Amino acid sequence: MRMRRKKNLDTRIENCNDYIIEFEEEKIEYGKEPKKHLLDLEELFENKNPLHMEIGCGKGQFTMEIAKRNPEVNYIAVEINKNVVVQACEKAKREGLKNLKFLILGAEKLGLYIPENSVERIYLNFSCPFPKKRYAKHRLTHENFLEIYKKLMINGASIHQKTDNMHFFEFSIGEFSKAGFVISNVSLDLHNSDFEGNIITEYEKRFSDLGQPIYRLEATKK
């Protein structure tokens, strides 16, 4: 089911322009490399702090909370659907968060806007598992996406993944391994583990309350 477009969406997005990074779609000509519009991260955040990203941030609850806990880190929350993320942008504005920006973009285009070797950590929280095999290339841990992420990440940077879907988790482990990532801190039942500092979103709590285990791992770029 498609979400109904929020009332006055364009005006609300415009009112949050200090927190939203949005680019006009450009036509990509066949046989030509698409033009890059790399962000000046130091200018964007007015500092040289480390950069972490959440890809597929949804309503932004996770990134909002982690940005508040870690003011010494810059965060970019990536979400393709501005109808979904607008409320998080408004909340970030109300709370005056200086270390958080929202990038309205599909993950496949990240290399056109995020400089290479600039990201220290990526979060993939409850990404759509696209359970049918024919849609595997749409999964955010598919090797095609991992190759994009690797170019953006510094050596030693890591991807932190959480999901409630066991088959997607198994698929992700295979893709991380093929792409040369080192996998560590694997949990098959996060909420019953000794892991500290987990940020539980509304979505995560809903599935945990149903008795479904939450799977988590860290994948480090060599």
Instruction: Determine the mean pLDDT.
Output: 93
- The gyration radius over C-alpha positions equals 17 Å
Q: Spans with pLDDT under 50 lasting ≥5 residues?
A: none
Second-tier CATH architecture of the largest domain: 3-Layer(aba) Sandwich
Q: What's the CATH first level of the largest domain?
A: Alpha Beta
- How many distinct domains? 2
Total count of helical runs of at least 4 residues: 7
Topology order in helix (H) and strand (E) letters: HEHEHEHEEHEHEHE
Strand order of the largest sheet: 1-4-3-2-5-6-8-7
Number of strands: 8
Distance between the amino and carboxyl termini: 40 Å
Q: Give the CA-based shape.
A: globular
CATH homologous group name of the largest domain: Vaccinia Virus protein VP39
Strand content: 15-25%
Largest sheet: 8 strands, mixed
Summarize the amount of helix as a percent range.
25-40%
